[in-house]
What does this fold into?
Amino acid sequence: YDFAARYTGTGFIYNRQSSLNTSAHDFSLSQHIQGRRSSFLLTDSVSYLPEASFGYARFSGNNGMGLAGYGYGGLYGVNGGNINSTFLPDQSILTGTSSRVSNSVVGEYTYMTSPLSSLTITGSYMLLEFPGDNLINNNEGVFQIGYNRSLSYKDSLAFSYQGGVFRYNQTTSNFTNHVAQISYRRLITERLRLQLGGGPEVI
It folds into this structure.
């Protein structure tokens, strides 16, 4: 049983223009349970930013904790570092200065079906709110299942399905999406990997 907690905060104070003063905060909890052939990971991450995380270079945001596998269907993607952006609120639009609070709760279960293959099931609930700003609050639910198979020491193949529900509080433009994907990965050197993937998406 591995438990981790992390807080990161930063602030900027300007001598002449106090209206530009900003602060950012991120708090995360992670519980990881490892068995002989299976593992379970639960994380909860809350952050406050003065603007969109995309382009906000002063604050790195969510860093991966706990499980750091290379599964295509997993919480940490193929790099094993930061949390897969699929399971975080999308903040890829530059909105200028507009404070926002985001929360993401993610659970992941991985089962080794054989020494060369694994099944990963991941579910998440995310919300993004803008206190004090006339922007659209939203919440999302995402479910993903992935199957990984090692073909050799250097080659692996994966199949995944993902379904999502997206809701916006101030509008009726809610929608769902479904994505199926097949991926291939090749280990070229210890520091260089090639990944190719593709598949249909229905919205």
In short: The CA atoms of residues 75 and 84 lie 6 Å apart. The longest strand covers residues 100-114.
